C-alpha cells in the first residue's frame, strides 16, 4: 500500500477558489555570489526526511499527501526563462508541493521558491526556507534532532472553548475593491516591490512605539487607506491573517511547518477629516479588541467543529462563509531572520516574499522585513497599466508610512 501523509484540517482552507488564486507562497532570494547546485539538491533531499510532503502530490478528497518522487532534483528547475509563467502550470494535485527555480544572474545565484500553501502558511514557509538553509550549510549527511510539529490538538481545545462573535464580520457591507482599468493589452505574470531604507524602517518602528500601536497596524492601515480612497467607500474593511502558533499554551520546540493561520477581520469608518494617524488609532483599537476576544477563532471554528464528520463540499462551504477570499487582501510575513536564512559563506543581497498571483483588479500586498528593511510587494496577473497601478499603491503606502 502506498505511503500517505494525512493533512490537517486547516489545509482545506486553501483548496477553496483554486481557479481564482492558486495557493502558493513565493520567495525570491538573490545571493551575492553563486551557490552550489548539488549542495542545494542534497539539502532538499535531507529536508524531505523531515518534511516528506514536499515530495508529494495533494489529494483533496482525502486531505492527504501522496509521494510522487524520491529525488530532490525533480523539484529544481534550472535557468527557466520566465519562472513565474512556468509556475502557472504547477499542479499541486499531481506534482510535488515544493518547486525551486535556479537562475544565474551576472554570475550570481537567484533562487525562487514556490511553496504549496496547502502544505504550509507564511510562517511555516519561512521555517521551511530556514530548514533548507540549515541543511545547505551543514555538511552532515542528515539533519539530526529536527522534529516538525503539525499536530493541532491544542488548537482544537482552544477553539472549542471559544464563544464565537455574534456579528458576522467576514463579509463586510462595503468591501474594498479596485476600479478596473480598461485595456486591450495582455495580462502577464508580474512581481513588484518597494523596499524602505533602514532609516525609514527604523523610524517606523520608533513612531509605532511612541504612539502605542504595532507596525502591522500602521502598514495595514496605509494599505487600507490607499485602497479605500481608490474604491470611493467610507470604510476600511480588511482581513488580517495571524499566526496562531504563539497562542499555544504549551509551546513546542522544533519546527511547525504547517497551516496554523487564521484571520482577524476589522471594519472601521473613515471620516473625510480623519488624519492618517487617527485612522491608525481606529484600526489599532479594533484590532486590540479582536485580539482580546480571540476573534481569529471565529474564522476556523466551524471548520474544526465539522472536520471529522462533514463531507468536503460542506467544509468548503463553511470556509466560504467564514474565511472567504476577498478581492483585496493583505498579509504580513513579519521578520525574516537573516540568521535563520544563512546559506553559509554566500550572503543574501535581497529577499522578497509574496503570496499567490491575483488577476487584476484583485490585488494583495505582502509585507516582510529582512535585514532591517521593510518591503511592500505584490504578485499580479496584469497589464502594464495595472502593474503601474500596483507600484503606485505601494508608493502611496510608503508615503503614508513616512508621514506617520
Automatic annotation (TrEMBL):
It catalyses: 2 a mycocerosyl-[mycocerosic acid synthase] + a phthiocerol = a dimycocerosyl phthiocerol + 2 holo-[mycocerosic acid synthase]; 2 a mycocerosyl-[mycocerosic acid synthase] + a phenolphthiocerol = a dimycocerosyl phenolphthiocerol + 2 holo-[mycocerosic acid synthase]; 2 a mycocerosyl-[mycocerosic acid synthase] + a phthiodiolone = a dimycocerosyl phthiodiolone + 2 holo-[mycocerosic acid synthase]. Gene3D superfamilies: Chloramphenicol acetyltransferase-like domain, Nonribosomal peptide synthetase, condensation domain. InterPro entries: Alcohol_O-acetyltransferase (IPR052058), CAT-like_dom_sf (IPR023213), PapA_C (IPR031641). Keywords: Acyltransferase, Transferase. Its EC number is 2.3.1.282. Residues 186-339 form the Phthiocerol/phthiodiolone dimycocerosyl transferase C-terminal domain. The keyword Transferase applies. Pfam families: PapA_C (PF16911). Belongs to the acyltransferase PapA5 family. This is Phthiocerol/phthiodiolone dimycocerosyl transferase. It comes from Lapidilactobacillus mulanensis. The lineage of its organism: Bacteria, Bacillati, Bacillota, Bacilli, Lactobacillales.
Amino acid at each position: 500500500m502506498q505511503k500517505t501523509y494525512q493533512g490537517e484540517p486547516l489545509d482545506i482552507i486553501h483548496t477553496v477558489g483554486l481557479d481564482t488564486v492558486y495557493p502558493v507562497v513565493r520567495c525570491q532570494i538573490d545571493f551575492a555570489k553563486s551557490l552550489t547546485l548539488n549542495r542545494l539538491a542534497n539539502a532538499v533531499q535531507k529536508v524531505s526526511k523531515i518534511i516528506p510532503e514536499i515530495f508529494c502530490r495533494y489529494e483533496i478528497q482525502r486531505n492527504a499527501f501522496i509521494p510522487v518522487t524520491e529525488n530532490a532534483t525533480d523539484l529544481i528547475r534550472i535557468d527557466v526563462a520566465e519562472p513565474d509563467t512556468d509556475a502557472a502550470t504547477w499542479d499541486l494535485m499531481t506534482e510535488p508541493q515544493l518547486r525551486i527555480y535556479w537562475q544565474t544572474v551576472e554570475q550570481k545565484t537567484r533562487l525562487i521558491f514556490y511553496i504549496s500553501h496547502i502544505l504550509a502558511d507564511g510562517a511555516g514557509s519561512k521555517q521551511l526556507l530556514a530548514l533548507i538553509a540549515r541543511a545547505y550549510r551543514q555538511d552532515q549527511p542528515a539533519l539530526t534532532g529536527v522534529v516538525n510539529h503539525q499536530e493541532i490538538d491544542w488548537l482544537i481545545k482552544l477553539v472549542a472553548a471559544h464563544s464565537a462573535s455574534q456579528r458576522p464580520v467576514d463579509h463586510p457591507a462595503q468591501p474594498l475593491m479596485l476600479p478596473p482599468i480598461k485595456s486591450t493589452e495582455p495580462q502577464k505574470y508580474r512581481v513588484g516591490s518597494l523596499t524602505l531604507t533602514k532609516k525609514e524602517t527604523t523610524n517606523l518602528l520608533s513612531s509605532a512605539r511612541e504612539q502605542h500601536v504595532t507596525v502591522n497596524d500602521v502598514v495595514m492601515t496605509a494599505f487600507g487607506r490607499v485602497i479605500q480612497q481608490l474604491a470611493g467607500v467610507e470604510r476600511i474593511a480588511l482581513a488580517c491573517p495571524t499566526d496562531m502558533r504563539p497562542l499555544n499554551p504549551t509551546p513546542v520546540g522544533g519546527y511547525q511547518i504547517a497551516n496554523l493561520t487564521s484571520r482577524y477581520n476589522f471594519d472601521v469608518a473613515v471620516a473625510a477629516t480623519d488624519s492618517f494617524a487617527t485612522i491608525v488609532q481606529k484600526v489599532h483599537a479594533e484590532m486590540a479588541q479582536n485580539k482580546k476576544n480571540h476573534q481569529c477563532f471565529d474564522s476556523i471554528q466551524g471548520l474544526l467543529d465539522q472536520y471529522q464528520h462533514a463531507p468536503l463540499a460542506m467544509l468548503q462551504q463553511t470556509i466560504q462563509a467564514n474565511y472567504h477570499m476577498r478581492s483585496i487582501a493583505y498579509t504580513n510575513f513579519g521578520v525574516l531572520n537573516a540568521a535563520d536564512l544563512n546559506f553559509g559563506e554566500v550572503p543574501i543581497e535581497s529577499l522578497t516574499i509574496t503570496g499567490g498571483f491575483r488577476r487584476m483588479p484583485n490585488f494583495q500586498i505582502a509585507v516582510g522585513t529582512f535585514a532591517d528593511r521593510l518591503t511592500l510587494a505584490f504578485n499580479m496577473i496584469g497589464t502594464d497599466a495595472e502593474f503601474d497601478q500596483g507600484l503606485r499603491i505601494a508608493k502611496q503606502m510608503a508615503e503614508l508610512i513616512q508621514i506617520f
